[in-house]
Write a structure and sequence with these properties.
The structure holds 2 protein chains of 2 kinds.
Chain A (H helix, E strand, L loop, with lengths): L4 E12 L2 E12 L3 E5 L6 H9 L8 E6 L2 E2 L5 H6 L2 E4 L11 H5 L6 E2 L2 E2 L1 H14 L15 H13 L5 E5 L7 H16 L3 E5 L3 H7 L2 E6 L2 E7 L7 H9 L18 E12 L4 E12 L3 E6 L5 H9 L6 E9 L2 E3 L4 H7 L1 E4 L3 H5 L6 H6 L7 E2 L2 E2 L1 H14 L16 H14 L4 E5 L7 H16 L3 E6 L2 H7 L2 E6 L2 E7 L5 H8 L8
Parallel strand pairs in A: 3-10, 3-11, 6-9, 9-10, 15-22, 15-23, 18-21, 21-22
Antiparallel strand pairs in A: 1-2, 1-4, 4-5, 7-8, 11-12, 13-14, 13-16, 16-17, 19-20, 23-24
Helix pairs in contact in A: 4-5
Chain B lengths: L19 H28 L7 H26 L7 H17 L4 H26 L3 H19 L6 E2 L3 H8 L14 H27 L7 H23 L6 H19 L1 H11 L1 H6 L4 H27 L1 E2 L7 H11 L11 H20 L4 H22 L4
Antiparallel strand pairs in B: 1-2
Helix pairs in contact in B: 1-14, 1-15, 2-9, 2-12, 2-13, 2-14, 3-4, 3-5, 3-12, 4-5, 4-12, 6-12, 7-8, 9-10, 10-12, 13-14, 13-15, 14-15
The chains are: A alpha/beta, B mainly alpha.
Chain lengths: 514, 403
């Protein structure tokens, strides 16, 4: 045998309605190595790991998974766990009200006859905790511990299941530097004990310090696997492969609408999360001119959506600690979406199914809900006018639906997105905030939405587009701000903005104050 | 874009997606309460040799159903919002008791009714505020309300025991009939028939008007023959029921009161902003929030309206019994909630109609009334009602498109 692979994934293809998330990914992991997976948001990393862990069961994808030389058929997570695969997700899966030892053995309790053997559980937990370098009482409630410690408990939980292959999905994304360093050390230690690791991460310096090999994914395809021996595990080389796609001209042509008139200016915007004690956004300064499309790029967790929602007046648990907003030349402040809408700002949510649309209602209902006052005759809604309005939007932005009385739930993603945009437009905004405007929709619908954006700009609207997709940021924006870990790490003009420049700024390490 | 200013030459097509089976299921689900009502009425009419469908019993049925109907209308809003109000029974009982006490102390009947309605409104506002501003789940707030208002009901009647109400106006609320023009000698209740004609004409005119408007906007309308047929059927049903009542004592006041409440709530839910907002919040609270809707305010208003209607229901019940008793209100919330769900309110919220809820109320109360006529034991009645309730909701859950 030439090489000892613990895992080989061969030509994995996985499609979702309208999107091909994985287009034939091949990927192998040597026994005992630390293998890092890098790529932009949407490159397919998480989907690949979901295929591996059985979240997407056998039969819903094409391709082959081979472990230790045997083809595997994982029908669910239990199957993959039985083969020694454990995944630690970015969002922790611990029960905060339970003690450490209860959490570690949750779902595979140590039994003594027909009852749980708590003494043995506590003993084993103590041993596992010391294995991950924690000298704490296993009877503490998990909810009282810091996030770094909780991450280590996740590792202990994985180790309690006789794990062969440990997968970390962005393990250090929420950790401070000290906790991150600790976790990376632990990974090295586990490697010495023979545990193979796969780590998904956006933090390239960590990848560079720890990886034996790095596989780069882009747009659902394997781009390259870099070996440490080759000497190519370095930042420029990795970034070049992450972003090195041919930029095809998938964007409508447009004449930039030059204007120096500032529509929106945000100064020293700070948002704090009192529950975790973290700063979500720090010292954000930016502006949007009239007739401009301003792109805000950032990776997952950079604070993109939080920025949009805090500007829109919807911050359920966060606190805006300081900051000023100038809109149309006047200092403004608002604390509810209603007031933001009344001032002329509309927001199109990234999560259209949960936050953007009332799925069980029809197209007409959804288009008019944010501006019913425009349909009032006295106190009564003029339903005929409402139908006219909804039909005109249906035609003008080409919502493909049998009728405006169709339930939104039954529309395709692209058409749902158009309904969401129609809803925002009906409140007649001067500034439209689009949060991931083309997430999960097909290429044709994407182009339609881009064309619509151009039309709106030409009609005098301004657009703030938040996106994690580099091509659309570069293809559509007049200017780009890059957000990383809650701070703006750079501003680029349309000419300056290249894939490499933006990605460098997005991956730039900034210290997030605890 | 110029939206909403012009009329477009566009014919609106009404289509639905899904298989034939889904369509059939959807029709069955949407009209289930009507089928159930007709089936139950036919069944009891047959089993009682026609006694069930006699004018006297239909009048009784209206009087019996009035308080539940009023509660169920308010409950529909609460259920659409994905909340629940368990306290309505005892709030109703307590309100009835206060009304009786005020009347016993010689207060003017109109003033007394007005004050009790205000009391109900205040109770509803309190519960709504605790739910929305403090964030206690409605289940808990109104469960606590059950304790509190049960206690207040008992306390208010502690010294006197059951209070007999003798005020004729108050009693006529749920026992009386519309007055008739004296001395016409026609052998039936003339005012009731005049009302029936007015109702039919109003119905026909409003339907024809809205059809004209639709044609003016070039929306698709049903075939003229279908339209005329629908008009005739509805008119015939209205005329028949009114004629039946007219040949007895005429139209009961209780039916008039419920009809007014129903009309107002139906109109508000369908034609005003707050109605839309209630459906939006029930569909998705977060999406409603981002559409600029003040979710807390709308929810508070729904609870306040529920308190108001509970007070009205309490007075209807007291009127029907001509007394306020410490037992008033026991189990009202069960009938009200069951009416809503049998009437097709989605268990997951966001969907429901007050008109269908009233049909749900008639289903529940026809069962009660019919089983009483047949002399079926009260314990069995509860079991039958419970089974029908769970079957209705189970059917609804299984046939509704998943979100």
């Amino acid at each position: 045998m030439a090489e000892d692979f613990i895992l080989e994934m061969k030509n994995i293809v996985k499609s979702f309605p309208g999107v091909r998330a994985l287009k034939g990914v091949s990927f192998d992991v040597r026994r005992g190595e630390i293998h890092c997976l890098v790529g932009e948001n949407g490159a397919g990393k998480s989907t690949l790991m979901k295929v591996l862990s059985g979240v997407h069961p056998h039969g819903t994808y094409d391709g082959e998974i081979v472990m230790n030389g045997e083809t595997q058929v994982f029908r669910n997570i239990a199957d993959s766990e039985a083969k020694g695969i454990a995944i630690i997700y970015q969002e922790l899966a611990l029960v905060p009200e339970m003690s450490i030892y209860e959490n570690i053995f949750l779902g595979h309790e140590l039994m003594h006859g027909r009852t749980i053997d708590w003494n043995e559980t506590i003993e084993r937990s103590r041993a596992l905790l010391s294995q991950v370098g924690l000298a704490i009482d296993p009877s503490l409630k998990v909810g009282t511990l810091g996030i770094g410690t909780q991450q280590l408990i996740e590792v202990a939980k994985a180790l309690s299941k006789d794990v062969n292959l440990l997968i970390y999905d962005e393990p250090t994304a929420a950790l401070n530097d000290r906790d991150s360093a600790h976790l990376l050390n632990l990974m090295r230690g586990l490697k010495d004990q023979g545990v193979t690791c796969i780590m998904i991460s956006h933090k390239l310096h960590e990848v560079i310090s720890i990886a034996d090999r790095v596989t780069v994914l882009r747009d659902g395809e394997t781009i390259t696997t870099i070996d440490r021996d080759s000497g190519d595990i370095n930042e420029p080389y990795i970034i070049r492969h992450m972003v090195g796609r041919e930029l095809v001209d998938n964007y409508p042509a447009r004449v930039p609408v030059k204007s120096d008139e500032v529509l929106l200016e945000v100064r020293n915007w700070n948002v704090h999360d009192p529950r975790s004690g973290r700063h979500i956004l720090q010292d954000i300064n930016f502006h949007v001119n009239k007739g401009e499309i301003v792109g805000i790029q950032g990776l997952m967790g950079a604070g993109r959506t939080e920025l949009a929602l805090s500007l829109f007046g919807n911050v359920p648990h966060y606190r805006i600690t300081s900051g000023e907003v100038y809109f149309e030349g006047k200092k403004q402040s608002w604390t509810t979406p209603r007031k933001a809408l009344d001032r002329g700002i509309a927001y199109v949510s990234e999560d259209r199914k949960r936050n953007g649309l009332i799925l069980i209602q029809d197209v007409r209902f959804n288009i008019t809900i944010a501006n019913l006052q425009a349909l009032l005759e006295g106190l009564v809604i003029d339903k005929n006018k409402e139908i006219v309005v909804a039909n005109e939007y249906k035609d003008s932005i080409n919502i493909r639906t049998p009728s405006i009385e169709q339930t939104v739930m039954n529309l395709s993603g692209g058409n749902q997105q158009k309904v969401q945009i129609a809803k925002s437009l009906f409140s007649r905004p001067r500034l439209l905030i689009l949060d991931e405007p083309t997430r999960g929709i097909d290429v044709g619908a994407k182009f339609e939405i881009y064309s619509l954006m151009v039309r709106l700009i030409e009609e005098g609207m301004s657009i703030l587009m938040i996106s994690s997709e580099l091509p659309e940021i570069l293809g559509m924006s007049d200017r780009v701000y890059v957000l990383a870990a809650g701070r703006i790490t750079g501003e680029l003009s349309r000419e300056e903005a290249t894939q490499e420049r933006v990605m460098e700024l997005a991956l730039k390490e900034t210290k997030r104050d605890a | 874009m110029d939206i909403g200013d012009g009329k477009k030459d566009k014919v609106m097509r009404l289509k639905t997606v899904g298989s034939v089976r889904q369509k059939v299921l959807a029709v069955v689900r949407n009209y289930m309460m009507y089928f159930a009502l007709v089936a139950i009425m036919l069944f009891f009419t047959q089993r009682t040799n026609g006694r069930f469908f006699q004018a006297k019993n239909i009048s009784d049925l209206f009087n019996q159903s009035a308080y539940v109907g009023v509660l169920a209308i308010g409950m529909t809003l609460i259920l659409i919002l994905r909340h629940i109000d368990l306290s309505v029974g005892y709030v109703a009982g307590f309100s009835g008791a206060i009304a009786a006490i005020l009347l016993a102390n010689g207060m003017n009947v109109i003033l007394a009714i007005f004050l009790v309605l205000l009391l109900g409104l205040a109770i509803g506002m309190y519960q709504g505020l605790v739910v929305t501003r403090i964030g206690v789940p409605a289940f808990v707030v109104t469960l606590a309300g059950m304790f509190i208002f049960r206690g207040l009901l008992a306390l208010s009647l502690q010294k006197t025991g059951t209070i007999i109400i003798s005020n004729p106006i108050f009693i006529s609320l749920c026992q009386g009939f519309l007055p008739d023009i004296p001395g016409h000698g026609l052998g039936f209740h003339l005012v009731t028939m005049i009302l029936a004609l007015i109702l039919v004409v109003w119905f026909a005119v409003s339907r024809i008007r809205s059809r004209r408007k639709s044609i003016a906007y070039r929306f698709q309308v049903s075939h003229p023959l279908t339209f005329v047929f629908q008009l005739l059927v509805v008119s015939a049903v209205i005329l028949y029921i009114f004629y039946m009542l007219a040949s007895f004592n005429g139209l009961p006041w209780s039916a008039v009161i419920v009809a007014i409440v129903l009309f107002i709530y139906h109109f508000v839910l369908n034609n005003t902003r707050i109605g839309r907002y209630i459906y939006a919040i029930g569909g998705s609270t977060q999406a409603a929030e981002l559409a600029g809707i003040n979710v807390k305010l709308v929810t508070s208003i729904a609870f306040a309206s529920m308190g108001f209607l509970a007070a009205l229901a309490g007075m209807l019940y007291a009127s029907r019994l001509s007394s306020a008793t410490p037992q008033a209100g026991v189990g009202f919330e069960l009938d009200a909630i069951a009416s809503g769900y049998i009437g097709g309110v989605a268990v997951s919220g966001g969907i429901g109609k007050v008109t269908n809820t009233i049909v749900g109320t008639l289903v529940i109360m026809s069962l009660t009334n019919g089983m009483n006529l047949l002399g079926i034991d009260i314990s069995l009645q509860y079991i039958v009602k419970g089974l029908i309730f769970i079957i209705a909701v189970a059917f609804d859950v299984r046939t509704r498109l998943r979100r």
